[in-house]
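Recall the central idea of this unit: under ordinary conditions, the amino acid sequence of a chain determines the structure it adopts. In this exercise we apply that idea directly, starting from the sequence alone.
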Amino acid sequence: MKQFFSRTFWFALATMAALYGVVVVGYYTGTSIILLAVVALVSALLAYQKLDLALFLVFIELFSNPHGALLLADVGGFPVSMRMALFVGVMVGCGIGWVMRRYQPSLKDGRAQIFLFIALAATLGFIIGVLTRDPIAVFKDGNAYLYLFYLLPVLSVTWTHKHRHNLLQILAAGAIWAAAISFSILYVFTHFWVALLTPVYEL
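Accordingly, the structure predicted from this sequence is:
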């Protein structure tokens, strides 16, 4: 059991709760765009200082919220989510780390080659889409493929046994969190009155 439920597990679970707390604050105070900027800045600083920890944060957000729509804000008519803010922050911090020679992606790693055809297909599809369709609609439809760029920071980290162990615990925390959220929502919608259901549903 210690393989799944040691300190990293509880840290990941607490971080998931904190992320959802940020969502609640942003939703009810109208400060989502400010909080998204803070998330991007913190993730950029973390990626520059400790790239492995920044990637753990990415996995924590991914495992706790599969739809990626936490903390949405409208920026120039375009919806920006926490997942996007994390992506921008991590890539910026990692990019600065490459320029400062703190990190160096191992592009000769065999793990990079297996994603090459997927990246080429996604790039070709995006180019064709932009040339024939509305670019905003194309981005909304295919922005998930931008996650392939995370391969660069992933290949810049030496994944030790400890890293893999921590990632396994983050996955376990995500499973527990998703189950807890699902059962909590089920309990609320089957035991409480309408006045409480409306804000829970909207959130």
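The CA atoms of residues 25 and 31 lie 8 Å apart.
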